[in-house]
């Protein structure tokens, strides 16, 4: 949502995992923000309390990390190959849900239930 996306400085200082470099973070940020916006049903964050904005930013950061390091989605051994059901999408959704569930009052989290 416009004006609420966490900057790389916020990611490094507040989210604090430091797993992604700035270029890698910024490369996946638009997709991560879109995924979180979908998950919260595109709610308007401008009237949300700071705790909800913080949960939104944390969810975007978690989605960035999940998108930058996707889960294995297929493998091949000999002549046999296996494709897992949308493993990347599942890990991104779980990362987002973990952060939104921590919001005070869970306003954002309840938006998509």
Describe this structure in words.
This protein has 4 helices and 2 strands. It is mainly alpha-helical and 113 residues long. Strand 1 and strand 2 form a beta hairpin. It is globular and about 55 Å long.
Structure characteristics:
about 110 residues, two-stranded antiparallel ribbon, single chain, mainly alpha, about 50% helix, 2 strands
Strand order of the largest sheet: 1-2
Number of separate helices: 4
Mean pLDDT over all positions: 78
Task: Sketch the topology as an H/E string, one letter per element.
Answer: HHHEEH
Map the helices and strands.
Blueprint: H1 8-15, H2 22-39, H3 50-68, E1 74-77, E2 80-83, H4 87-100
Helix pairs in contact: 2-3, 2-4, 3-4
Summarize the structure.
This protein has 113 residues and is mostly helical. It has helices spanning 8-15, 22-39, 50-68, 87-100, and strands at 74-77, 80-83.
